Each structure stands twice: as structure tokens, then as C-alpha cells.
Amino acid sequence: MAELDTDLDPIIPASVLPTFWAKSVVGIISLVCFSRSYDGDFVFDDSEAIVNNKDLQAETPLGDLWHHDFWGSKLSSNTSHKSYRPLTVLTFRINYYLSGGFHPVGFHMVNILLHSGISVLMVDVFSVLFGGLQYTSKGRRLHLAPRASLLAALLFAVHPVHTECVAGVVGRADLLCALFFSLSFLGYCKAFRESSKEGMHSSTFWVLLSILLGAAAMLCKEQGITVLGLNAVFDILVIGKLNILEIIQKILQKDKSLEHLVVLRNGGLLFRMALLTLGAAVMLYVRWKIMGTGPPAFTEVDNPASFADSVLVRAINYNYYYALNAWLLLCPWWLCFDWSMGCIPLIKSVSDWRMIAPAALWLCLIGLICQALCSEDSHKRRILTLGLGFLVIPFLPASNLFFRVGFVVAERVLYLPSIGYCMLLTFGFGTLSKHTKRKKLIAAFILGIVFINMLRCMVRSSEWRSEEQLFRSALSVCPLNAKVHYNVGKNLADNGNQTAAIRYYREAVRLNPKYVHAMNNLGNILKERNELQEAEELLSLAVQIQPDFAAAWMNLGIVQNSLKRFEAAEHSYRTAIKHRRKYPDCYYNLGRLYADLNRHMDALNAWRNATVLKPQHSLAWNNMIILLDNTGIVNDKKESEALFLKAIKANPKAASYHGNLAVLYHRWGHLDLAKKHYEISLQLDPAAPGTKENYGLLKRKLEQLQKKGI
Fold first, then answer.
1. How far apart are CA 87 and CA 65, in angstroms?
2. Could you give the CA distance from residue 526 to residue 693 in angstroms, rounded to a whole number?
3. How far is 142 from 578, CA to CA, in rounded Å?
4. Three-class secondary structure assignment of 348-374
5. Close Cβ partners of 322 (under 8 Å, ≥ 6 residues apart)
6. What three-state secondary structure class fits 201?
7. How far is residue 384's CA from residue 380's CA, in Å, rounded to a whole number?
8. Which DSSP helix (H) or strand (E) runs through 202?
9. How many angstroms from the chain centroid is the CA of residue 190?
10. Exposure winner among 22, 86, 157, 477, fewest CB in 10 A?
11. Residue 234, by phi and psi: left (phi above 0), alpha (psi -120 to 50) or beta?
């Protein structure tokens, strides 16, 4: 039994130590923590990644998933975020198919079960990390640290920082990545068996399988590639038994015996390192080629520190962000769905009191690193080094060190690093137990942490069940975050409370005077309330700040049209279409402008464009039908009939379409067809204006014809 397990002996009862019972306890507790989110809505990013993502629907070929980003956009597009996660999107598509549509319960249940399964796997992962690799004569791995692995897995299962990944459906990317990450690590461990004569030897098959599982993790989320680095660290430290301190000392002393180190002459180790390096290089090369146009372009509001002119300011703020991430792991009480847009103001001077945070972080890290390097206890060195490795290495893609990321702090990226944190925390509890006689007090303290974290998970999961609760929960955590106020306002507007929405939109613009989306939405509400002058000012400012903001240009055109400034409105609509060529709503509004100006052919062409781009655009079809009916622009009966039939095909339950087509058939003398469509129209809408009267006229005419024997 590992020394750490002996230290935890008085704290964890032996009754839960058998592997089956330990995994059962972890699995059940993890389910309890996040079960309240099972019937939640699609919230926040779920709308774009799932509800509005055409890659989930059967009409989209499966092959497109390998050419689109996580949000359904083409990777070759300049506006793509380059987040390439086709395996995650594939699971969303399967969910959509099995659920028969966008029913969130099935999506949430998969996330909850995934986290539970990963937590159970963590028992094995921590067993290897704490107890090392030893096998029976039959090749079965011995669980040498059952108490430490159980405690660490419990701490992982109940950590509240995981709520975003579990309760938010888009967090499945992190969950699937963690699943394949864990399988890759455990697969790599299977590459070693103990033989009494030969010692440890490797299996190339398991190494290659581990690399393939690492690639699968990367296809779920970019962090997945870091498992190859951790496999290498584990191989060197645990299998190769490399003593870093010894090597450093020999380098400093220019000791010639360095070249005779066993680890450097181990052909099996070098071969495995070569395979891991080659695998990582291939994965990175393919990933870069797939990105097409290079890295994504983020804005200053997404990550303000990365846009700072001073290298010192950037470095200080990056380290402050690291400290905040560490604090979220240590004290996950203040959680927020978004940490951008002023939530964390920049540190611009070393005299800022917040400099205490990165200083404290580095003091702790330096202390742990010194212990990991200099401790005479090889077991302690190994645990601390592996714990730091699992904490730091998976976090590197989010660190801004290699490339700019599109966020300040994101709780979801801590899912994998929390493995290292839970390992270090468990080691700390073991050390504390070793040096104190109050074992029961420590046991109560640990139990209290697990219980409090469980409660926090349940409360936070409940907040993620609806956008209203989620957005309002952020107001107390990030009151300076313009996006929080924007999302609260948007939610209020969607629910019909425009007065309250205006207040939050104004606050969002006050906090971030360049927040064009808040200006656009506020301008829309003011337009609907007929406050046209202020609406025009806001929308004009929005397009001045962001000239390619197509939605703001269109809304500006609507306001200008209402103000009878037709020439300016036409220019705004045309500019919107210039920046977004496939914009059916803008073509529809352009058609309305032409109709007001009696430019009937231009109106008809604009509405036709709208219906070509969006065949279900009922307003465009309606207006086109009314225009044709009133003006008789199209004299060809077959062309008119074809147009109406297209409209009905696009929206078969539109009573007005059937009613208008029936009128045309009535005029043309196709009385049976007219009767059919009148009846369909009345069946769909018994109160359809004019249809009942026209149907009555048709019936009287049919009766007269019947009496005449025609």
C-alpha cells in the first residue's frame, strides 16, 4: 500500500475501498450533484451550437461536419472561430435524431451520464497516479492507493467548477475530450507489464492506440492533444524513474556520468517518446491545415489583455488570469457564465492591489515545484510532479502563451486541470493527517468540503436550467460585465418586458460604449415603441463602430423607412446585403420599401430573392401574393399558379396561401380546385378574412351549375 494511503487510513473507511464499491459511490454522488439540470432548457451558447446549427439536421450531409466548425460555419470562412470539434457535433446530431428534434432533456441526460462515467474512470486514473504501476503474475494491475484514489475521484466528481460543462449542453465538448483523454492515459498505462526477468516492457499497440484516443480527444476539443505530453511525463517519471534534481545537479557539476544515465540509454523509452512526438506533430499539422485561413480573429472585448500595447501589462494580466483560475479551483463559490467585457478590469500598474493574487499564486507554485524537485522522498516527488503536470499541461492551450484565446476566464477549460488540483489537494490532506493527531477533525473537514461542494453543484445546476436564472445569477458576480446586462435585457425582451429590457441594454452600452449588439437591440425596441430619432442615432453609431454589421444596417434602414427617408433606407438595406449576401429578411424589408414607392417589379424581385434564400419566409410569400393579386403584374396563369404552389409547399399550413390561390382558381374558372383550397384554408383558419364569403359565393355558383346540368 502507498504511503499516502496509510496517512488516509483513519479518514476513509475500509468498507468503501473495494474497486466496485468505490466506483459506485463516486458514480452515484456525481449523478446527484448535477441531476437538477436534466430538464433544463437550451441556454446561452446552446442556441448557436445546437438549435441554430444546421449540421445537426438530416438535410446536412454527414461529410459537412468535417469541414465545419463547432458552430456550423465553414472553417474556410474568415468569420469562423476555428473550433474544430466534429466528434462532439456528431453526438449532438445523434441526440437530435434519437430525440426526434430539439428536446433538451435527452441532451442534458447524456452530459450528466458522461460526467458520471468520467468520474468513475478517475478512480482508475488516480489509482495509477498515486500508486504507480504494479501487476500481478496474471497481468492485472494492483490498486495500491485505494483511499487516495477514492478521495481524489470524489473531489473531482463534486467540484462546482464543472457545472458549466455538465449543465450547459455545449460543455459536452469538454466532457468527451476528458473521456478520451482518460482512456488515452489508461491505454498508455496498459503498454507496460511486469515480467520477473525483463522488468517493464512496452506494447507498441497500446502506445499507438493511446495516440489514436488522444486524436479523438482533440477532435472533441483542442485541449485533448495535451494527453500525449502527460503520457510522456508519466513514462519518464514513473516508468523511467527519472530524478530531475539529480540530472540538474550533474549538469551544474559537469558530471561526465550524465551520458551514462539509464533513462537516456533506454531504447524502449526513446521509441515511445518518438511515437508520441510524431503523433503530436501529425495531429498539429492536420489541425493547422484544416483551419484553412489561419487562426481565428478575436476582438478586444473578448480578451483585452492580449491587445495591450505593453508586454509588461500583458504579462501581468495573464498571470492575474491564472490566479483567478486557481482561485476558482480552490474556492468555486463565485461562478459566472461569462467573464469578458469589463468583468475583470485590466491591471495597468504594479501598484494595483490585485498584484497580490499572481504573487501568491507563484509563491505556491514555486513551493510545490521545489518540493517536487528537492524532496528526498521519491514518492512525494512523483506525486507532486504528476499533480503539477496534470494541473498545468492541460491548461496550456488556454494560457495565451502560444496563441490568443477568445476569453478572459472560462470555467469550462478547468475540467481537465482539476484532475491535477484534486490530486494535489488529496496529497495535502494526507500530509495534514500524517502530522496531526486529530484525525476525526480532518475527516469531518473533508466530509464538509464534499458536502458543501455537492450543495453548490446542485444550486449552480439549478441556475443553468433557464437563461433568466443563469443571466441574473451573474449580476452579483460580474456587475461590470456588459454582456451580462445585455443577456438579461435580451431575455426580458424575448419575454415581452421591453421596459425592463431597455434599462439593462442602456446599462450594457454605458459599461461598454462600443457594444454594437446592445445598441442594435436597444435601437430595435425603441423603433417598435416609435422612438425613431433615438433609434436612428443608436443604429447609426453601431454601424459607424462596426461598418460590416449587417443586422444594424438593416434595422437602420427600417427606421429610415419609417421616417420617410427612402433614399437613405435603400442605401442602408443595400449595405446590409453587401456585407451579408444571403440575407432574406433584408430582401424582404427592401421589398417593402419598393412597394411603398410603387416600384412593384423591384419589390417583387426583392421578395423573390427572400423566398429563394429562405423558402419558409411566410411574410415575403404573403406580400408577393398580395402584390400579384392587386396589380396583376404576372399575366401568365401558369406562372402565377406555380408561384402560389411554391409558397404552399414552403408553408403548407398558411391559410392565406390556400385562400389566395383559391381566389385565383375561382377567377380562372377552375372551380373544383378553388373549392379544394377554400376548404383547406377554412380548415386551417375558420376565421380567415374573406375566405368564408368567397367560399359561399363559390358554393352558390356550383349549385346553379348543377341545376343547369353543367
1. 9
2. 40
3. 66
4. CCCCCHHHHHHHHHHHHHHHHHHHHHH
5. 358, 361, 399
6. strand
7. 6
8. strand 199-202
9. 32
10. 477
11. alpha
**Chain centre distance of CA 198:** 47
Residue 505: all three cell numbers together? 441594454
Residue 334 CA to residue 239 CA, distance in Å, equals: 40
Distance CA 533, CA 560 (A): 9
Q: Cβ neighbours of residue 670 under 8 Å, at least 6 residues apart?
A: none
Partnered with residue 68 across adjacent β-strands are 74
Q: How far is CA 51 from the centre of its chain?
A: 13
For residues 162-200, one letter each, b for 16 or more C-beta atoms within 10 angstroms of the residue's C-beta and e for the rest, the string is bbbbbbbbbbbbbbbbbbbbbbbbbbbbbbbbbeeeeeb
d(CA 158, CA 175): 15
Strand, coil or helix: 192: strand
| Contact criterion met (CB below 8 Å) for 549 and 516 | yes
| Contact yes or no for 562/568 (Cβ under 8 A) | no
> Which residue type, as a one-letter code, is found at position 172?
R
For residues 527 and 4, give the distance between their C-alpha atoms in angstroms, rounded to a whole number.
Answer: 67
Q: Are 621 and 654 in contact (CB under 8 A)?
A: yes
Question: What DSSP line would sit under 622-683, residue for residue?
Answer: HHHHHHHHHH-----HHHHHHHHHHHHHH-TT-HHHHHHHHHHHHHHT-HHHHHHHHHHHHH
**In a 10 Å sphere around its CB, with 0-12 CB exposed, 13-18 middle and 19+ buried, how is residue 494 labelled?**
exposed
Write the pLDDT tens digit of every residue in 77-109.
Answer: 777 778 899 999 999 999 999 988 899 999 999
Rounded distance between C-alpha atoms, residue 206 and residue 49, angstroms:
34
Is the separation of the CB atoms in 505 and 531 below 8 Å?
Answer: no
Select from 405, 434, 348, 347 the least CA-distant residue to 147. Answer: 434
Helix axis angle, 691-707 relative to 671-684, nearest 10°?
150
User: What is the helix, strand, coil percentage profile of the chain, to 5?
Assistant: 70, 0, 25
- How many Å apart are CA 511 and CA 341, to the nearest integer? 8
Which one has a higher pLDDT value, 362 or 290?
362
Give pLDDT tens digits for 661-706. Answer: 888 788 778 888 888 888 888 888 887 767 888 888 888 888 887 7
- Report pLDDT digits (tens) over 7-25: 676 667 665 678 888 899 9
Q: How far apart are CA 566 and CA 559, in angstroms?
A: 10
C-alpha cell belonging to residue 123: 478512480
Residue 313 near residue 348, CB atoms below 8 Å: yes
By the 10 Å C-beta count (0-12 exposed, 13-18 middle, 19+ buried), 153 is classed as buried
Higher pLDDT: 245 or 408? It is 408
Rg (CA), the chain: 32
Q: What is the identity of the amino acid at 354?
A: R
> Which cell numbers in the block locate residue 110?
447524456
Which of 16-30, 111-125, 619-633 is most confident?
111-125
- pLDDT of residue 507 exceeding 70, the answer is yes
